[in-house]
């Protein structure tokens, strides 16, 4: 695999670099390395500092190592999920960090690589695993979840109003034979969504595919887990920058950041805090940072991107 085959365009690149406030001797983590676009700009600013590059996609590691070949002496590459950031840092003997970047969701490369099964626009085996060493895939989900489980996933993670109907049609279809490809699943979804509802808005399979991908990779649970863990490891003034691409992710980040800034769980009528929960961060972005017109012209996928930033504080 060559770097040219990994068509990943780094979203909100310079906004992330600016908000990380990189120190030449600092310790930084790119928790979703992808093709290494963000990592490269971080590495360029380091002298005696360290960069930890994490990704669960082995293809990403091959591409990023090529892109980052001039900076390998500053970098630790880790094949893992960013949700395990606590144990990753422990394994490297790192107590505190000066910044971390997370670019949540599926990468351009994963969408463009048809055989990975992420895209509803290309026919491929049902897969959607970001970490291909895991056994649980979209095929397993579609062919083994019962109707209630399918409805839960598609409604909660896809915010799809026709979730129950889609679940019912999937159950009916797989009674004849397993649903094996993305193309077969798209056809089932098209049958389930009434014709009138397919006239306007996004592709009828978009929300369902998003939902399946989130469930297969445990994306939202991992995101919540990672924010809590990173907040505990940030040096004062260190920054956590998170880019999200849909409302579910952005809501989790917004609420998690707010809790890090104001963790008190005491009843509102208490005159002073009695729970003893300490503030772990300060929210830098009251409103998310979004892409400018120039970036949107170059990369339409950046249209839904939102960047939020949390800063570590003294305890």
UniProtKB/TrEMBL annotation:
InterPro entries linked: RsmH (IPR002903), SAM-dep_MeTrfase_MraW_recog (IPR023397), SAM-dependent_MTases_sf (IPR029063)
Keyword terms, alphabetized: Cytoplasm, Methyltransferase, rRNA processing, S-adenosyl-L-methionine, Transferase
Entry keyword Methyltransferase: yes
Enzyme class: transferase
The keyword Transferase is assigned to this record: yes
Catalytic activity, reaction form: cytidine(1402) in 16S rRNA + S-adenosyl-L-methionine = N(4)-methylcytidine(1402) in 16S rRNA + S-adenosyl-L-homocysteine + H(+)
SUPFAM superfamilies attached to this UniProt entry: Putative methyltransferase TM0872, insert domain, S-adenosyl-L-methionine-dependent methyltransferases
EC number assigned by the record: 2.1.1.199
Localization of this protein: Cytoplasm
GO molecular function, a single term: rRNA (cytosine-N4-)-methyltransferase activity
A Pfam family it matches: Methyltransf_5
GO terms (BP aspect): rRNA base methylation
Assigned GO CC terms: cytoplasm
Residues given in the record as S-adenosyl-L-methionine binding sites: 36-38, 55, 82, 103, 110
Record function comment: Specifically methylates the N4 position of cytidine in position 1402 (C1402) of 16S rRNA.
NCBIfam families the record matches: 16S rRNA (cytosine(1402)-N(4))-methyltransferase RsmH
Family label: Belongs to the methyltransferase superfamily. RsmH family.
Protein name as catalogued: Ribosomal RNA small subunit methyltransferase H
Species for this entry: Anaerotignum propionicum DSM 1682
Gene: rsmH
